[in-house]
Specification:
globular; EF_hand_dom; about 15% strand; Phosphorylase Kinase, domain 1; Transferase(Phosphotransferase), domain 1; 3 domains; two-stranded antiparallel sheet
Length: about 525
Amino acid sequence: MGVCQTKSINSKKLNTSTSQTHIRIKTEVTEMSDNMPRRRLNLQIDPTKSCDNKTSPLSEGVILTQRAKRRITLKKQGSNNYTASTCSSNHILLPGCAFKKYSLIRKKQGNHSISIISNNITGKIMQLETFRKDDPECVNYIEWLMRNKIDHPNIIRISEIFQDNKYFQVVSEHFDDNDLSELIADGTKLSKPEVSQVLNQMMQAIHYLHQQQIFHGAITINSFSYQKKQDGIFVKLSNLKGIIIKLEDDLEVVKYTSPECIYHPKQNVARDVWAIALIGLTLKKGVLPYQLPHQLTQEKLRIIVKNHVFKFENKKDEAFKEFLSHSLNKNSIKRVNLEQLLNFTFITKYQQKLKSEQELLLSNILEAKPCCLLQQLIIVFLVQEFNWEQYLQIQKLFSEGDIDMDGLISKAELIQLFQKYLSIENIEDKIDKLFQELELEDEINSNLFLALTTSRRDVLSTSNIEISFEILSLNTSEITLKGLKKYLNADSDEIKLELSRLTDDSNSLNKLQFAKILELMI
């Protein structure tokens, strides 16, 4: 499991926070009832698994190689196993069940065909989807995955493919459980800047596929998942299988099908452009822009989509009107492609200059609330599990600031780091105040530095908190010293002391208490 890789040598260097911080957290935790109903969580993590390997939590599995020049086909061997036939030896199917390497945490909410899993050695959180070997479309999809290297920041990344006697098991990166439609689930309408930001990312992902002559042809609003981050909404294409495994009669697919493809389905640029633009309009209106009857059949829906004509003449926003009129043009020949749409004013004018990673991380320091040692250790665990990329950025920034390479950043070194990346008036006074609030003398260790710099709202999502509770509680209804000692690499006596302080010597945290401790950091 993810570990705090800078273990304390001297307790004086642990940077515990003020007694006021302990009192505040303890008060919040102990106010919660200890008589809450207990329930066992459906967590199948084997607590006897070794976690001695404390290297990178990235899965060490197969990285799918670049798009093959020759078609890969799966040849059936004995015992219902397949081998990949290709000139490249890099295209392989890993034998055996994925659960020899991973442990089940839970099924994905709203889609029980997808499981949230963790690597038994590294603890890296991933997700797994199973496909039947006796389904020709599933076999075609596995062939397609092995034939194409899909590597884009706005597309879910495939890590490994396993096979047992009955199933293929596709392991991919874990992204939050949020389908894009949840942004408007309660009738909420996105602002134009938000719509522009989401459209830009969706178009970047699908344009990347188009550049490889891959056309989706089954895009719906829930082909994408999202995370709300500090600098906006982050979107990824999470439904790759729809490219191969077709559900043309599915009502959701029909809703986002372009008129010319209603009775003559095809996969091409024009169809994908229509679907993305319609998703953008839906996010802006808060509802799909069709008048749909309560008794909706496939044929009724097909007729509505086929005959509907969008009219944008009365729209006041000229930039949005231009975007919609060129992307939702009923004449597919006049519909522009994604490369052109990415340069339309509605997309470009809302693309704000984003802060550099260093600017963002350092800005977080001045806004972060004080935290106790246990909170520090848990936030390090969470960042390693759910935001490995930012963890690496923080480690790099810490190394840059640690000029004398003593494993600590002094007040003077921190001021220098700020002055290198940010122009903040009276930064020396602000750093002085920070050190006073944290009751620090003159140095910060790497754990506290990470706890201060990380984007807390991003990593402390409801989904991440729930998953981490299930891991740290070792398949029980409470987190105890045993789970904390297993996954937090710090002195056992220090963890025990912190847990005792926060829980009035009960030495356990239920789910609500655990969530509260983390929410106090936001």
